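Troubleshooting log. The previous structure file for this entry was overwritten by mistake, so regenerating from the original sequence record. Sequence copied from the archived sheet and checked twice against the printout by T.R.
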Amino acid sequence: MLPEGWKARSRDEKCALRFSAWKEGSGIPFVSEEARRAYQERVQRFWDAMELRRPDRVPISLVVGFYPAKYAGITAYDAMYDYDKLGMAWRKFNEEFPADSLTSCLLITSGRVAEILDLRFYRWPGHGVPEDVSYQYVEREYMREDEYDWFLEDPTDYLMRAWMPRVVGALEGFGHLLPVTPWLEWPFVGPYLVRLGLPQVQRTLHALLEAAQATLEWVQKAAAVDQENSGRLGLPSVWGGFSKAPFDALADTLRGTRGIMLDIYRRPDRLLQALDRMVPLMVRMGVESAGFGTGPFVFIPLHKGADGFLSREAFLRFYWPSLKAVLLGLIEEGLVPWLFVEGSYNERIDLLADPDLPRGRTFWHFDQTDMKRVKQVLGGRAAFGGNVPASLLHLGTPEDVRQYVRDLLEAVAQDGGFVLLNGAVLEDAKAENVRAMVEAGLEYGRYR
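Regenerated output below.
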């Protein structure tokens, strides 16, 4: 529930209100005043870093996939199907690797729900991939090249009646529905309702209800674990919402990598129209998923903007303008885009220092980009973090990790505005190395 007079407030006022609500931690069952104080100190740490100040020390955050499951001795399948085991593993990880942010088990989706829906554009543990590995996306052109017009006319109608029946088997019935426009006049509603009675549509509706009930069971149990971990350990959840770059939204699960690359050359104008059409949808996704009081950061993974994927010219034409529009839309609502810069941006890091982006209102999480160069370009303009290599955490020694963290903090963190993070999402790592990263952050992350 947004505070009264929200629309009339400035973006900075909205951002401050979101941070205050996040810091208050309303609804979190703190077990003691010490836990509440630790929670609020950690929130303040992130707030200071985002505002380009020097907090009491560098905040530390771990970005992990199924690693807590492996650390606890269970499989990825166990985590997706047995919520008691999921809770056990994520309690253990949060307790034994005390960073400044919660590692949420809500990021591990339910295998039971995927089964009910007959999810076709992913393979998950025990269903297309082994039980001990993460889920994998199945790349195809799920949106055909001749469907741009339909998508441009009404993206929601297209997604519901064309795309979803292709990628989710249980939703095949949506392909038999009419557009919802007949509801504008009651005498014309009959044909729409008749379609709802078709056996294919009835099966879809029943599957949706079953999936919703299964999702509710998963959410209740996973959220309870997160609440317990926050209240017991004083750990704030950093990401309040989720969105995507419009280019990635089209390229990842609609046109596919091959399709989007062909579109750049065969139908660039149509592609640009579609990217513009995606902007308000991606802004709305971020705003509605963030809510109020859950944290102002909106997580945006940048999948296909890296060096070697798009030329600088193509990045400037097809990737950056629509992404920038999404960022400005989110910032206007008091949200802080948390951009996960996957791969390397060494050839285009200068473009991220766009003068239209307000100072201190974006956070850039780097994977493989040269952090000294990042400091030169973004220092004093935007907060940033990263890039402890996943390869180092998996193959190095604790001393290697400690030295890397020490050198990184010395090189780029001393002026503030920095968060210590691993680069790629952790799936495999030596526990002693992850622990060394956290301990080195605590030891060397104090400002001189």
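The first strand starts at residue 60 and ends at 61. Archived copy saved in two places this time.
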